[in-house]
Design brief:
Chain A: It is a multi-pass membrane protein. The complex is a heterodimer of chains A (about 270) and B (about 550). Chain A is mainly α. Helix content of chain A is about 50%, strand content about 0%. Chain B is globular and about 90 Å long. Classes of the chains: A mainly alpha (about 270), B mainly alpha (about 550). Chains A and B meet through helix 7, helix 8, strand 1, strand 2 and helix 10 of A and helix 5, helix 10, helix 11 and helix 15 of B. The structure holds protoporphyrin IX containing FE. Protoporphyrin IX containing FE binds near residues 53, 132, 153, 157 and 354 of chain B.
Chain lengths: ~270, ~550
């Protein structure tokens, strides 16, 4: 037997292989997972040709569910009065056009035809149908202009009951869930607050002022960009993963050590 | 070892490092003999005997790191405005306790590392204790004369949970506040005394201003003090009673086979301490734990998704979460069953069950003899099954404590998980019992087969008349000795005398139940040596073992008479 084969048969070898495989998987995932879209929304405008173009796009992509003039069908709610902000949020996060029917339409990569320009056109069309909240300006959602500490307090008071303290998300009833906030753009965060998608309540400007919204955006962005000072963040979901690590790495590692320490020396003539 | 040449045969074995100081002390206080004897104390070599040491070393590390933390921690709920280096909290109103924890994390040199090591060590302390306890349970090492040490162990575990709970609450962050809120909810739901207990603990209305400083005293003074005393008692008893050991070659109820304390075991224990420390330091460096700055300061109004206690409290969380909302109204008082039952029942069940098990087993088997050779788990199938169903019960509750994380991360409906939990918590332990029992018997049968027919050698032999058979050879000597360590589980005598009257103590319904349980629990389920002609000469080996027990003068395989 060559030395390598002997090593390969070593009792610890398969753990080493497993570890290696996991590490590779992790690196691969990190390299190929989609980065957050920087969908800095342009200002929704009510230009006439945008509305016209938007109507055409709506007819070909949205009408089947939301019905003529977006008055709603059994497959989709009415969009009259939801506003450009709702369209921008739903489309820039890939939720709309919906493809699956489940408890909740998930965030997904944008279809090839969806560009910011086309989103703006559909948004303008929906806005023209019955008004509603508009897309926030660049300045309104600029994290650099917010105060993260103030935003943090508002975030804890209003959002973490669903989205968790670090925006890692959480479960709601009936198969619904509050998603993690890792890939939401500042504009999407703002729009989520003013349109209240799905099970999320609406936080209008009288509950939380635009300035406060910017503070919250500053907090969410700064916390998610922060490198964890204590090492690997373990998903930032708290004691559940910590307990798993304590058992698997801690007890697991120490049991291996104990087996090794107490192993009988193999005699040469064995 | 070649220390001496001539005329001191009894110390010839002892290394200089021991003989030096011990004779020094001997000449002055006459304690040399004591030291010499104890340095040669024999410790068995089996990895599972080191599990308790994980807890011991974690505890030492907890004491050291904890002391470090007390130098900066301020156990006060007084309000301050944060102006430290962590920007997302600057200008936020918080308690001094929380602010000083942030100070330790971000400003004290090495503070975050020590804080993280302390927390990881706390998890490993409890986990190590649980693993250690399971090994003691499944091998029956708690039997006479070690029942007292078992009771001490159960007390240690209970205190460790209390120590963990109080420690977890100290930083006064949002997450620990949620835990505190539940503690208060449980306290106040106690019948009759609830309000008083809650007021006493919190010094008035919840959350009050006192609870952190009270918990601090408990956490750094009272509970650790008791823990140190109990751990010492635990160690002294273990030392005096000597170790139990796995059945095997030359091991009897009258001896201990293993290496001497010095140098062999001391080296192993020393290196194991270093291993434990290395793992804890590694975790403390590379894995973030309890990031209180992300949670934010505690305010009673805020509550986060994914609020969880540390793992050892997870089973209580789980039982709270699967409990249907029941309330009982008695004479105008509301007894919130949905809080009392889940908070007290599993804890009571697990801890009381643990504490009483040795005595219940004694009562059932009527076994009052000493045991120093432990059982292999398969050889006491009912005990092993009871243990496994308890693990299933605990494990399921623990899992369900994380039902929201399961739902969110695996996209399962929360309701479905909870309903599953309500059913599984009853069915699961029963299934575990049945499956484990079957497996134990199967394994015993396999042992009996190995003893009876030997092991397959891989050599195929062709007999003169053309039939092929595989040659079986007797098992290796040490393996066979390990298997033959099995003894029938004691049971009460079947009872009835000639007239059919059961003996005293076994009359009446309780006595009859005891008799029936004893017959089920005890006895030999699968006998080792079934009569079957060719015996491959397995029997002669036993004689050799006895001899080996008496040899043991050199190297690792020593033995001492009790
Ligand atoms: C502070 C926590 C604890 C520490 C530091 C600790 C430490 C130890 C150590 C180092 C040993 C000797 C090595 C071994 O047998 O593994 C031991 C023996 C023992 N422990 Fe613990 N232990 C703790 C908790 C417990 C618990 C929770 C139980 C059971 C409920 C327990 C029951 C026993 C028994 C019965 C023995 C004697 C076993 C024998 O001689 O085979 N201990 N303990």
């Amino acid at each position: 037997m060559t030395r390598i084969t002997a090593r390969r048969r070593h009792p610890l070898a398969r753990y080493a292989v497993l570890l290696l495989a996991l590490a590779l998987l992790g690196v691969g995932y990190a390299a190929f997972s989609p980065k957050s879209q920087s969908a800095d929304a342009a200002i929704a405008s009510g230009k006439v040709d945008d509305v016209k173009a938007g109507e055409e796009l709506f007819k070909s992509h949205c009408l089947s569910c939301h019905g003529p003039e977006a008055r709603g069908t059994a497959d989709g709610p009415t969009l009259v009065g939801v506003g450009a902000a709702a369209v921008d949020f739903q489309m820039s996060s890939g939720r709309m056009p919906a493809t699956t029917v489940g408890a909740q339409v998930p965030r997904k990569p944008l279809p090839a035809w969806v560009t910011q320009k086309k989103i703006d056109q559909i948004a303008a069309y929906v806005q023209s149908l019955g008004g509603g909240p508009t897309v926030p300006s660049k300045d309104q959602v600029d994290p650099a202009k917010g105060d993260p500490a103030k935003g943090g307090e508002l975030f804890r008071a209003n959002c973490i009951s669903c989205h968790n303290w670090a925006g890692a998300g959480g479960a709601l009833t009936q198969g619904k869930y509050a998603p993690n906030l890792n890939s939401s753009s500042p504009a999407q965060i703002y729009e989520a607050m003013i349109t209240g998608p799905q099970a999320m309540p609406v936080f209008n400007d009288s509950t939380i002022t635009p300035q406060q919204k910017r503070d919250m955006i500053a907090y969410i962005v700064s916390v998610r960009e922060q490198t964890d000072p204590g090492g690997f963040g373990l998903g930032r979901i708290g004691p559940v993963t910590e307990g798993l690590v304590a058992w698997i790495v801690g007890i697991g590692g120490l049991v291996l050590a104990a087996i090794w320490i107490t192993a009988k020396r193999r005699q040469a003539n064995d | 070892m070649s220390t001496e040449t001539g005329n001191r045969p009894e110390t010839a074995e002892i290394p200089k490092a021991v003989s030096g100081p011990s004779s020094y002390l001997d000449e002055r206080i006459g304690a040399g003999n004591f030291i010499r004897r104890n340095m040669r104390k024999v410790f068995p070599d089996h990895w599972s005997f080191l599990l308790g040491e994980i807890a011991l070393y974690s505890f030492i590390i907890l004491l050291l790191t904890g002391t470090f933390l007390t130098l900066w921690f301020k156990p006060s709920m007084g309000h301050v405005i944060y102006d430290g280096p962590y920007a997302p909290l600057r200008g936020v109103m918080m308690s001094e306790a929380y602010a000083s924890s942030l100070h330790i994390s971000f400003e004290v040199r090495g503070g975050l590392l020590i804080r993280q090591i302390h927390h990881w060590a706390a998890l490993l302390f409890v986990a190590g204790m649980m693993a250690h306890m399971l090994r003691v349970f499944f091998t029956g090492a708690y039997r006479k004369p070690r029942e007292l040490n078992w009771i001490i162990g159960v007390l240690l575990l209970t205190l460790a949970l209390a120590e963990g709970l109080t420690g977890y609450s100290l930083p006064d962050d949002l997450l620990s506040g949620a835990g505190l809120r539940i503690t208060q909810g449980v306290a106040i739901s106690l019948p009759l005394v609830g309000t008083y207990v809650s007021f006493f603990l919190f010094g008035g209305e919840y959350p009050g201003e006192d609870v952190i400083s009270r918990f601090y005293t408990l956490h750094v003074l009272l509970i650790p003090g008791i823990l140190v005393a109990l751990v010492t008692a635990h160690m002294v008893l273990m030392w005096v009673q000597k170790h139990s050991q796995q059945p095997g070659k030359g091991r009897t109820n009258m001896n201990v086979v293993g290496g001497p304390f010095f140098p062999s075991f001391a080296l192993k224990a020393g290196s194991y301490f270093l291993f434990t420390f290395a793992i804890l330091a590694g975790l403390g460096t590379f894995a973030q734990i309890n990031p209180i700055w992300l949670f934010g300061p505690y305010t009673p109004a805020d509550i986060s998704a994914g609020s969880q206690p540390d793992f050892y409290m997870g089973f209580l969380e789980g039982s709270l979460r699967i409990m249907p909302a029941w309330e009982i109204n008695v004479l105008g008082y509301t007894l919130p069953m949905s809080v009392i039952i889940p908070a007290l029942l599993p804890l009571g069940l697990v801890m009381t069950g643990l504490a009483l098990y040795p005595f219940i087993e004694q009562w059932v088997t009527g076994d009052r003899s000493e045991h120093h050779v432990v059982d292999r788990p398969r050889n006491n199938p009912h005990r092993t099954s009871i243990g496994m169903s308890a693990i299933t019960f605990y494990g399921l509750l623990w899992l369900l404590g994380a039902n929201d994380e399961l739902a969110a991360n695996f996209h399962i409906s929360l309701f479905a998980i909870t309903r599953f939990g309500q059913i599984a918590i009853i069915v699961g332990p029963i299934l575990a019992y049945i499956i484990t029992y079957r497996m134990c018997l199967g394994l015993q049968r396999k042992d009996a087969e190995v003893i009876g027919h030997g092991v397959e050698s891989g050599v195929i032999k062709r007999l003169p008349h053309g039939e092929f058979i595989e040659v079986h050879v007797p098992p290796a000597e040490d393996i066979e000795a390990h298997m033959r360590g099995k003894t029938p589980i004691p049971a009460l005598p079947d009872g009835s005398d000639e007239k059919g009257i059961p003996p005293k103590g076994m009359r009446g319904p309780l006595g009859r139940l005891r008799g029936r349980m004893s017959r089920t629990y005890g006895g030999e389920k699968i006998p080792m040596d079934q009569p079957h002609g060719d015996d491959h000469g397995a029997h002669e080996e036993i004689g050799e073992h006895e001899e080996h027990a008496a040899v043991g003068a050199t190297g690792e395989g020593r033995s001492l008479d009790r």
